[in-house]
């Protein structure tokens, strides 16, 4: 149980059971992808100096080549860094939290937008895990789809580790919470005794309706 984790809308008696982000391989892919983008100009410079020497000669003969290349490189690296941070923030701030009472779906949309939605555990109708592809199968990650009443998709835990174990754990929590919620409803009904205003109101309605 994650006792040391908190989130803004967490209630005092609410305990976090599970916190999921995308699999670490997704983060590694982002770093590798943009790392190659950052190395691309260096590799191109090496090729021009050692293989395509005629290009280097022509660039040296041009007066505008130096300033223009500097400008293009500045724009290229600036854009690469912006895209990298966009992808990293989207990865890191997409969080799915399962507590003992509800599921919280936090989705980052771009650099400056975020959506937060939640569903009570007893309202969950279906939890489905899916793993597609060679890498997801080998590294054990996939999607977990959460559906509420009317088969409406509430949230998709995207590319999370151990999707089958995650879905089973959520289903156990859902079943427990549904039983607990139904018992609470039964207890509320049983507290309406003869002599209570609610009970008298019900009896009067039955009597006059007869």
Question: What structural keywords apply?
Answer:
210 residues; alpha+beta; 4-stranded antiparallel beta sheet; 3-stranded antiparallel beta sheet; 6 helices; elongated; disordered C terminus
Q: Brief overview, please?
A:
This protein has 210 residues and is α+β, with helices and mostly antiparallel strands. It is 53% helix and 22% strand. It is elongated, with a radius of gyration of 29 Å.
How does this structure look, described?
The protein has 210 residues and is of the alpha+beta class. It has one domain. Helix content is 53%, strand content 22%. It is built from 6 helices and 7 strands; from the N terminus they run E-H-H-H-E-E-E-E-H-E-E-H-H. Strands 1-2-3-4 form a 4-stranded antiparallel beta sheet. Strands 5-6-7 form a 3-stranded antiparallel beta sheet. The longest helix has 29 residues, at 65-93. Mean pLDDT is 80; it is low at 199-210.
Q: Which value, in Å, is the CA radius of gyration?
A: 29 Å
- H and E order: EHHHEEEEHEEHH
Biggest sheet: strands side by side, in what order?
A: 1-2-3-4
Number of continuous helical runs? 6
Uncertain parts: 199-210
Question: Main sheet, how many strands, which sense, barrel?
Answer: 4 strands, antiparallel
Question: What is the total tally of β strands?
Answer: 7
Strand-residue proportion: 15-25%
- Gap between N and C termini: 55 Å
Helix content: 40-55%
Overall form: elongated
Number of domains: 1
